[in-house]
Amino acid sequence: MKPPSHLLKPLAPALLLAATVAATAAPDEAVVREMARQTHIPADDIRRDHDACDSGVTLSMKICASYRWRMQDARLNAVYKQALAKAREVGYEASLVKAQRAWIAFRDAACANEGEMGAGGGTAQGLYELSCMESLTKDRADRIGAMIRS
User: Fold this and answer.
1) Side-chain half-sphere of 83: how many Cα atoms within 13 Å?
2) Which of 30 and 120 is assigned the larger pLDDT?
3) What pTM was computed for the model?
């Protein structure tokens, strides 16, 4: 049985507000602090724009894209530490370190190229690069995670 519409109308704004608040999760404070330290972007700006990737405001979009990449980078670093410990136990530490260093060089070069080709040297180049960094870093974290689970 459907409730009468006069009971639903007062709830509509509250439900909309609840959906909006739920969709905007608080940023990871460790990532905010590290990003602020590395980039000198004020932490309050990072907190405000960490989810503004679709805002249409270039600076806010770059802060968001950088935040997303740094979230994946923090995840990768945690997984890599676990993989390094496991590799050390079985004697494959050197090959993991070599592979990771090569992967970082690949990621940086590939994303620089993607930024240049995607934006043609325009103001969106950084957004292309950061999006690429996020994507490749997520894939690498997933791949290393699968290795340590097997």
Assistant:
1) 23
2) 30
3) 0.80
Average per-residue pLDDT in the chain?
86
User: Residue range 107-125: average pLDDT?
Assistant: 91
Residue in 50, 52, 64, 66 with CA at minimum distance from that of residue 111: 66
pLDDT digits (tens, 9 = 90+) for 7-38: 444 434 333 333 333 356 899 999 999 999 99
pLDDT score recorded for residue 121: 76
Using CA atoms, how far apart are residues 130 and 45, in angstroms rounded to an integer?
A: 18
Nearest to 131, CA basis, from 64, 76, 74, 83:
64
Could you say which architecture CATH assigns to the domain 26-149?
Up-down Bundle (1.20)
Q: Which amino acid does the sequence have at 83?
A: A
First CA to last CA distance, the chain:
51
